Amino acid sequence: MSFFDKIFGGKNNSPERKSFWKKIESEEDLNRAIESSYQHRIAIFKHSTRCFISKTVLNNFEKEIDNLDDKLDLYYLDLLEHRPISNKISEDLGIRHESPQLIIIEDGKVINSASHEDISISQIIE
What we know:
The protein has helices at 3-8, 27-36, 52-66, 83-93, 122-125; strands at residues 21-23, 42-47, 73-78, 101-106, 109-115. The chain is globular, with a radius of gyration of 14 Å. Strands 1-3-2-4-5 form a five-stranded mixed β-sheet, with helices on both faces. 37% of the residues lie in helices and 22% in strands. Mean pLDDT is 85; it is low at 1-15. By secondary structure, it is α/β, with parallel strands linked by helices. It has five helices and five strands; from the N terminus they run H-E-H-E-H-E-H-E-E-H.
């Protein structure tokens, strides 16, 4: 792997995510996530694995989560690997696609969405 791949994320540079993430890799996974939002608030983090900004935002967000007492249902979507699912989220939930993006869902509806430096754990717990 080249130096630039390590910094900017080459094709094979997909480190294992923290254990609190539930991956969305299919429409069924997305449907289960939306269904669980009827029981409690959830968050979906849409991440571009080849974007330095997205990696930085994700790492900062994970640090915030690590310091949170209550663990929440957090879903992770690699939008480069699963672009059709990312498109479905935008279409079905009526929000514009962004990356990185944190989408907060309750009762099947988006209650908050943020991108880039606006992503914070405070969106979930407020």
